[in-house]
Design brief:
The chain is an alpha+beta fold. It has four helices and 26 strands. The protein starts with a helix and ends with a strand. Pfam families: Beta-prop_KIB1-4, F-box-like. This is F-box/kelch-repeat protein-like protein.
Length: 375
């Protein structure tokens, strides 16, 4: 009798152990099946406060890696919209898809020229006055008056920096340009005429960037002019304009282009309502534009007046071009993915030449959100 009991107990013990092993295997399988993609985890973790981020990072090694990467990720620029009426300005964060508002009556009657390092350069057509403005701190720095017709303006650094210089160029004749420069604190602009070896026509559709001590200007027809403020020299380089596909030559194609710089590299984006964007990088050694199939993890933020490039963003934002257009009542910024070869949202090809070039600009986000109204 005792022997039978021992035998039954042994069989029961083996059955329990077997069930435990199966349960553990099932749990492992369930954990594997419920594992979230890294991209989705980044989106979730990016919404957390620093304290909650640190707490979540203690769950497992994978969550730790994602939590740390989000903490160290760069912030993308925000899209700032200038109202046609009133003094309420809209700011859109493309990473969080959130909209904020800020009332800035001091900027009433101003037109945006460009943005850099969190500062705006404004122009008041009625008085020809030019003003630097930091919208988040409401700090203003005045420049001498200058009448702007159809030319663009760019500056090298924040106006609080000693290296800041403001630059604009306009053509007098096809082979002669007038370049005006000024530094904060000066009482007048310096204007010098330069002779071009190649024709260079200025337009509001030209593109300007400052890169490693030089101002690069892409003309309406694609010729590249370069100004050195230290040497006060100007030259139109014999770099053939970026080659566009045959079906690219449609209405407004010359206007739908953007230029940005990053770490000494110059990028140009050509867009068209009929086909996908084409991106080029300037090969400064061989003096040619090279078409790019990937941005290598970088993201471009395209705008008529000031385009930007960023690295070390969230994975979901990398290798994308973000345009200064928001759809679905402010819930989605129009973008193009080089990985997938398509626009998001779908069917968002746009004739950028018909858009008001002064309605928006990309700007650095604020450190403190307490002064903003959230929508």
């Amino acid at each position: 009798m005792a022997g039978r009991r021992r035998k039954k107990m042994k069989l029961l013990s083996e059955t329990i152990r077997g069930n435990r092993q199966v349960s553990k295997g099932q749990r492992d399988e369930q954990l594997t099946q419920s594992k979230l993609p890294t991209e989705l985890l980044e989106v979730i973790f990016s919404q957390l406060s620093l304290r909650d981020n640190i707490r979540a990072s203690a769950v497992c090694r994978e969550w730790l890696a994602v939590a740390v990467s989000v903490r160290m990720a760069n912030k993308p620029p925000w899209l700032m919209f200038f109202p046609k009426y009133g003094d309420l300005y809209e700011f859109y964060d493309p990473s969080q898809r959130k909209t904020y508002w800020l009332e800035l009556p001091e900027m009433h009657g101003s037109r945006i020229c460009c943005a850099k390092d969190g500062w705006l350069l404004l122009y008041k057509p009625k008085t020809h006055s030019m003003i630097f403005c930091c919208p988040y701190t409401r700090e203003f720095i005045n420049l001498p008056s200058l009448e702007l017709m159809y030319q663009l303006v760019a500056f090298s650094a924040a106006p609080t920096s000693p290296s800041c210089i403001v630059f604009t160029v306009k053509h007098v004749r096809p082979t002669v340009v007038a370049i005006s420069t000024c530094r904060p604190g000066k009482t007048e602009w310096t204007t010098v005429n330069y002779q071009n070896r190649l024709p260079f026509v200025s337009s509001i559709w030209n593109k300007l960037v400052y890169c490693q001590g030089l101002f690069y200007c892409l003309s309406l027809t694609g010729w590249l002019g370069v100004y050195d403020p230290e040497k006060s020299t100007w030259a139109v380089h014999s770099v053939s304009p970026p080659k566009c596909p045959e079906n690219f030559f449609v209405k407004n194609w010359r206007k739908g282009k953007f230029m940005a710089e990053h770490n000494g590299e110059i990028f140009v984006i050509y867009t068209c309502s009929a086909i996908n964007p084409v991106i080029y990088k300037l090969d400064q050694t061989n003096k040619v534009w090279v078409e790019m199939q990937t941005l290598g993890g970088m993201a471009l933020f395209a705008n008529f007046l000031s385009s930007h490039a960023r690295t070390d963003l969230l994975v979901t934002m990398r290798n994308n071009v973000y345009f200064s257009k928001v759809r679905f009542k402010g819930k989605r910024c129009v973008s193009y993915s080089l990985n997938n070869g398509r626009y998001y949202p779908r069917k968002q090809r746009y004739d950028w030449g018909e858009q008001d070039p002064f309605e928006s600009v990309w700007i650095e986000p604020p450190e403190d959100l307490s002064t903003l109204l959230q929508w």
